[in-house]
Automatic annotation (TrEMBL):
<protein>
    <submittedName>
        <fullName>Zn-dependent protease with MMP-like domain</fullName>
    </submittedName>
</protein>
<dbReference type="Pfam" id="PF06262">
    <property type="entry name" value="Zincin_1"/>
</dbReference>
<feature type="region of interest" description="Disordered">
    <location>
        <begin position="1"/>
        <end position="46"/>
    </location>
</feature>
<dbReference type="InterPro" id="IPR010428">
    <property type="entry name" value="Zincin_1"/>
</dbReference>
<dbReference type="InterPro" id="IPR038555">
    <property type="entry name" value="Zincin_1_sf"/>
</dbReference>
């Protein structure tokens, strides 16, 4: 019994299956609504990379603290990096952030991967980012983190 491939369908190609799209094995949504293009609203992807999500979270935290940046005389740069470069003999806990003194400005470096690995969900990550940013800015500006917290 030799049959041609697709003979049951008569060679007709149909569109995607009706109903909800599945999220198989946690890989995220698939299909035209999850990818940027003419079929998605405003051509915006429904999925962000972890790096993009973390950058948006840090941006939201810094946006809430914007009035402090305008009031403080010291210029502070906030930078996000993936992970710190540590020597092979490092045995302490991996730092979540560091403060680097630069000529004319201070730089606060946030490390995305150590923060992400210590949190179970997005709410924990948001709380950790808030606390780390507040602690580091309070250290730079020599004030209490409670004085900075707008929440």
């Amino acid at each position: 019994m030799d049959r041609a491939v697709g003979s049951n369908w008569g060679g007709i190609v149909s569109g995607p299956r009706p109903g909800r799209m599945r999220d198989r094995r946690g890989a995220g949504l698939r299909g035209p609504m999850a990818m940027p293009g003419p079929l998605s609203p405003r051509s915006v992807p429904a999925h962000r990379t972890p790096r993009e999500s973390f950058d948006l979270l840090v941006g939201d935290v810094l946006g809430a603290l914007d009035h402090h940046f305008a009031a403080e005389p010291d210029h502070v740069d906030i930078v996000v990096e993936e992970a710190p470069l540590l020597p092979p003999e490092w045995t302490d806990e991996v730092p979540l952030s560091i403060v680097v003194a630069r000529p004319g400005a201070m730089r606060v470096v946030l490390f995305r991967l150590p923060m992400s690995h210590r949190c179970r969900n997005k709410t924990d990550l948001e709380d950790l980012v808030w606390s780390v940013v507040l602690e580091r800015l309070a250290e730079v500006w020599r004030m209490s983190p409670d004085d900075l917290d707008p929440r």
